[in-house]
Amino acid sequence: MTITPRTNYISWDECFMRMAHIIAERSKDPSTQAGAVLATKDNVVVGIGYNGFPRGIDNDAFPWEREGALHETKYAYICHSEENAIYNANNETKDCKMYCTLFPCNECAKTIIQNGITEIIYENDKYHEDPRWIASRRMFDAAQVVCRQYLLPS
Asked: Care to name a GO molecular-function term for this sequence (predicted)?
């Protein structure tokens, strides 16, 4: 009897997107849990991140509110999962691809482009029509960053 390799293994896309969802579970944010995985073209993970306050800041020190004046909401203080994956990569970002549970906002797009990341694989684009995400797509197009939606296997 000849033993052959199994054929029902998961793709790299599925593997890294699952990882993005797992790391998102570390988020303390009560309304949005986002995760990101940064991998080389050879599928080596170099960084992971989730959305949360910067290191060393107590999770009760700032608001988790979504509405109000900027300084009264989480948006003035939170680091996005994409940013944290880049920070955790120790400058190993050039020509990498990033797996994101959510399509990156305009601020993350700037950081992604500046760090030489060439491909974004995202799962959810729920803010597609928001001006910040329109700007994000425009910047990705101008910088020739490939963006593609990950679709769950059927």
From this structure: zinc ion binding
Give the CA angle between residues 52, 33, 29 to the nearest 5°.
50
User: If you write DSSP's letter for every residue of 131-145 in order, what string do you get?
Assistant: HHHHHHHHHHHHTT-
Task: Give the residue numbers annotated as catalytic, written as ranges.
Answer: 82
Give the whole-angstrom CA distance, residue 3 versus residue 23. 35
Rounded-to-integer distance, Cα 145 and Cα 92, Å: 17
Q: Does 96 appear as a known binding residue?
A: no
Question: What domains appear along the chain, each with residue ranges and CATH number?
Answer: 12-51+81-149 (3.40.140.10)
Predicted TM-score (pTM) of the model is 0.93
147 labelled as ligand-binding?
no
Taking a C-beta distance cutoff of 8 angstroms, is the pair 101, 34 a contact?
yes
Structure tokens at 4: 């052959």
**What are the pLDDT digits (tens) for 91-102?**
899 999 999 999
Which residues are CB-contacts of 141 (< 8 A; sequence separation ≥ 6)?
Answer: none
Rg from Cα positions in the chain: 17
80 is in an annotated binding site: yes
